[in-house]
Write a structure and sequence with these properties.
Elements lengths: L1 H14 L3 H8 L13 E11 L2 H12 L5 E3 L18 E2 L9 E2 H15 L2 E3 L5 E3 L5 E4 L3 E11 L2 E3 L15 E2 L2 H4 L9 E5 L3 H10 L5 E5 L9 H8 L4 E4 L2 E9 L1 E9 L5 E4 L3 E4 L3 E3 L30 E3 L11 H21 L7
Parallel strand pairs: 1-2, 1-8, 2-5, 8-19, 10-17, 11-12, 11-17, 12-13
Antiparallel strand pairs: 3-4, 6-7, 7-8, 9-18, 14-15, 15-16
Helix pairs in contact: 3-4, 3-8, 6-7
NADPH dihydro-nicotinamide-adenine-dinucleotide phosphate binds next to helix 6.
Length: 359
């Protein structure tokens, strides 16, 4: 899988062949600006960090508003190819405009192509640190730095995965980390399924999966759920759901696609066979905020806090879009929606602060 992602990532780099030329044309000559280790500093109205639907939707809107956005799409940031989480899935069937579905990789290629066509500049580099203490803000990669009047952070989140015998082999062949995305696939219809986790996500995903599966097991490592009472009640009152307490999956097996699990009771040590055609990890997500080094307000789970109904963060001129600020919906279309909001919020901010938009 990593090899496939790398091949894909390399393909994307080739599309960015103009990066060097762009860098040259955008470079600042002023020595008053601090630059990164290799010395190159660029100047822009808007810098967008990320490469999923949120970043590209923001870029398309911002480029059309003549903000000349610079996007840092990352280079295997969080072990994902540029394009983000959708690069790890097969067919996306719930993004409007593609009635027959579209491969995740093809969808992100289209996003990227549209950003470039609208006039965004894309650099296949990972942002390693930022300085948001004053405007213009500074964004650093290993090879350059950018001074930007506004910043949109759209670095997403990564669904945590478990690794046990067979878990990688059956990934995307019965094992997934997104029930809402994959649950309706034909291989899961009227088949027994399982969800690992004991939080709200696990309850929500298990309840959702009862629409498709004949039965849904929740496999939880403890004897008590972490989920909120209401979410627990909803799941526990569903006759299709059964909890397997104090248990961990040891092995996934099957022929070509997932056929079952070896599940070990951590108290008794007993191993039981659970026949399922689908297994969904719901053990939390990791928002990609490390490079921010505490400069934006985060909630208790590490997500960027935005003002209700907007993408504004606690730093004026810095906006957040997509899964990095959304632990509830986490869908491509909601990420795209907040990407649009962030670009409009940034445009309004730049207008109010008297920036030289389009001049
Ligand atoms: P992400 O997709 O999370 O991408 C952000 C990207 O930014 C990162 O991956 C990385 O490439 C880049 N980045 C991170 N840090 C940095 C940095 N420091 N510098 C530069 N770049 C950086 N949703 C659907 O609507 N339909 C589906 O069918 C569907 N299927 C899914 C299947 C799987 C297996 C998974 C994991 C998710 C699926 N989703 C689906 C959810 C969807 O992929 C996400 O909700 C969506 O991609 C979030 O978009 P985003 O723009 O917030 O960023
Ligand atoms: P949580 O961190 O709340 O729960 C993760 C669950 O996965 C826990 O039960 C944890 O077990 C289990 N887990 C973690 N690591 C492992 C592991 N290595 N092996 C086995 N099990 C593991 O994450 P959620 O995604 O459920 O929720 C995140 C946040 O999003 C929460 O604030 C939640 O309330 C919110 N949310 C709200 C929703 C809603 O209101 N509709 C829907 C979804 C999420 P243990 O309990 O033993 O630690």
């Amino acid at each position: 899988m990593v090899g496939a992602l790398l091949r894909k990532a390399r393909g994307l780099v080739a599309v960015t062949a103009t990066s060097a030329a762009l860098a040259a044309s955008l470079s600042l000559s002023s020595s008053s600006y601090c630059s990164s280790s290799s010395g190159e500093t660029l100047r822009t109205e808007l810098c967008i960090i990320g490469s999923g639907p949120a970043a590209h939707t923001a870029a398309i809107y911002a480029a059309r508003a003549q903000l000349r956005p610079i996007i840092f799409e990352g280079w295997m940031a969080n072990d994902l190819a540029p394009g983000g989480q959708l690069t790890t899935t097969s067919v996306v069937e719930n993004f409007p405009g593609f009635p027959d579905g579209i491969l995740g990789l093809d969808l992100v290629d289209r996003f990227r192509h549209q950003s470039l066509r609208a006039g965004a500049s894309i650099f296949t580099e990972t942002v390693t640190k930022v300085d948001l203490s004053s405007s213009p803000f500074r964004i650093f990669t290993d090879s350059k730095s950018v001074l930007a009047n506004a910043v949109i952070v759209a670095t997403g989140a990564v669904a945590k995965r478990l690794h046990f015998k067979g878990s990688d082999g059956f990934w995307n062949r019965g094992i997934s980390a997104c029930a809402v995305c994959d649950g309706a696939a034909p291989i899961f219809r009227n088949k027994p399924l399982a969800v690992i986790g004991g939080g709200d996500s696990a309850m929500e995903e298990a309840t959702y999966l009862t629409r498709y599966g004949s039965k849904v097991y929740i496999i939880h490592r403890r004897d008590r759920l972490r989920a909120s009472r209401i979410m627990q009640q909803r799941a526990m009152s569903n006759p299709k759901i059964e909890v397997i307490w104090n248990s961990e999956v040891e092995e996934a097996y099957g022929e070509g696609v997932l056929g079952g699990l070896k599940v070990r009771n951590v108290v008794s040590g007993e191993v039981r066979d659970v026949r399922v055609s689908g297994l969904f990890f719901a053990i939390g997500h990791e928002p990609a905020t490390k490079f921010l080094d505490g400069q934006l307000e985060l909630d208790a789970d590490g997500y960027i806090v935005t003002e209700a109904g907007s993408t504004r963060t606690n730093v004026r001129g810095v906006f957040a879009a997509g899964d990095i600020q959304d632990k509830k919906y986490r869908q491509a279309i909601t990420a795209a929606g907040t990407g649009c909001m962030a670009a409009l919020d940034a445009e309004h901010y730049l207008q109010e602060s008297g920036s030289q938009i389009g001049k």
